[in-house]
Amino acid sequence: MTTSPIALTSALARFDAIWSPRIVAQVNDYDVRIAKVAGEHVWHSHDNTDEFFLVLEGELTIALRDGDAERTVVLAQGSVFVVPRGVEHKPSSADGASILMFEPSGTLSVGDRRDSVPDHVDVTTGHRLD
Amino acid sequence: MTTSPIALTSALARFDAIWSPRIVAQVNDYDVRIAKVAGEHVWHSHDNTDEFFLVLEGELTIALRDGDAERTVVLAQGSVFVVPRGVEHKPSSADGASILMFEPSGTLSVGDRRDSVPDHVDVTTGHRLD
């Protein structure tokens, strides 16, 4: 449990890995995670949970599939978006970004159904912020 | 459900009321709420849920009671903090702030146990962002 405030910029300065979320807070059985991102994540979906994104720095693109249709949303710094459960999505950031996510503890970073995971994407339920 | 990104600065520009949270996103059965705050809220506690705070602008102070002991945490812009369930707390901001909160949908802004609520504090489970 958080007992003193955490400055997100300081927390982000404590790691370099991309697509490798750190848990900065827990709210009931949910995690607040932060991640540095750059390039492409992987197409995946979460069967049982929505996923919340807030862009702290930079710009995040999220490609979304609905059947055969595909669309893209672009989140500028300070923007929020929720990917509904079951929706295939692929986050990416051409120039790099820092993001905050809110999702149930135990949610896997690459979802329940996914394309093969490239080496630069960490398969994790979130790491402790050391 | 959010279908396009929401810029938090634009969302904040759409209302003036203080201590009157707006729901900007839903994540499963949780709300993401934003609020403008200034002056003092009210001592209260949530029996059944933790409460997450992120300061978007300005500085937020949260007074916390643990039995007879009282302490205060100060959240600068970009800082996060979780008030554990059951802990009496009173947010305040001498110079005003904008904050983001995560909590279960239906969570009352003034908790389950509280001091008498002053007129400038809205008793709400969160308003729609119009």
Automatic annotation (TrEMBL), chains A, B:
Segments of this protein annotated with the region Disordered: 111-130
Domain spans labelled Cyclic nucleotide-binding: 38-81
Superkingdom of this protein's organism: Bacteria
SUPFAM superfamilies linked to this entry: RmlC-like cupins (SSF51182)
Any Pfam family hit: Cupin_2
Database matches in InterPro entries: cNMP-bd_dom, Cupin_2, PKS_Associated_Protein, RmlC-like_jellyroll, RmlC_Cupin_sf
Protein name: Cupin domain-containing protein
Organism listed in the record: Allokutzneria oryzae
